[in-house]
Amino acid sequence: MRFWLGWGLALLLGGQALAQEAALLERGRYLVEGIAACGNCHTPKGPSGDVPGMALAGGLVIEEPGLFRAVASNITPDPETGIGRWTDAQIALAIREGRRPDGSLIGPPMPIELYRGIADRDLAAMVAYLRSVPPVRNATGRSSFQIPLPPSYGPPVGTVAMPADNPVSRGAYLAGPLGHCIECHSPVGPDGRRDWSRAGAGGPPMASPLGQVVPRDITPRAIGDWTEAQIFRAITQGISADGHQLNPPMAYGYYARVSPDDLSDIVAYLRALPSGP
Ligand code: HEC
Ligand code: HEC
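That is the input. Now the predicted structure with heme C docked in place:
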């Protein structure tokens, strides 16, 4: 009797663990392939977007003249050219604190300053998902930085809880640590760093396949009279309120997978931003 009872319990617990693992993976997929848009930098692009079969395999070059020529890393589980030999903790440290297992620092434009705010649970989900994607063998070149990298991005992060349960806090988390909207859409201060006090007020021009594009002001000053549907369409389809098509690197191809609830929270946050000067 006790034997059968124990066995039943073990099966039940085993089933629960599997369900939890599946939920974690699903959350990780939603984050990496959706709001976090890791592939916007880590998947190489051809004339018609992401190169098929090369998801997260790296090689895309991002240049900021005078500052850096960054080559996005292969973050698939390939043991030779990707992160297949890293432990979960090592992958987590690389994403949230920008430190590789060999101690070196990951350079810009990976938005580590914002990633320091990724909640523990979401970080674990991202790591689980990255482990599950098909390994792709792709040796990428090395980045070169004309500006010295800092010794670190800050003190050890410790633990980060999920945001408070209200639309504006959730939206701030989605537009900051997860979706890095405010990395592109905020001005750079005199010290060369993003000026978070003016988050959303528009960023400096950036390179796109079609020449330079400017991440616009997305505070209420600029989009205050847009309807929620118009803001949703800009984020998920890359169509501005006046109907014109927006260009990459605005990551609408990834944001198309963001849930309606999360989109509403992002809009609540944008509507609460102080208007640009
Ligand atoms: C804006 C572009 C950008 C985004 C977005 C981005 N990364 Fe990166 N990432 C890079 C670049 C560029 C490097 C290489 C930097 C260097 O050479 O120092 C890098 C390096 C890494 C590394 C280190 C790999 C190695 O072998 O050195 C990991 C892990 C990583 N990224 C994971 C992620 C994950 C996960 C996401 C999404 C949550 C993400 N990145 C989003 C640009 C980006
Ligand atoms: C990698 C940089 C980048 C990221 C990340 C990014 N954007 Fe953008 N965004 C742009 C650029 C560049 C444009 C303008 C493109 C153009 O004019 O063709 C733009 C345009 C927009 C527009 C349209 C503004 C207008 O006046 O037409 C909205 C709204 C917007 N972004 C919101 C967001 C939100 C919300 C997020 C996060 C979920 C986000 N963006 C993430 C670069 C980015």
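The longest strand covers residues 61-64.
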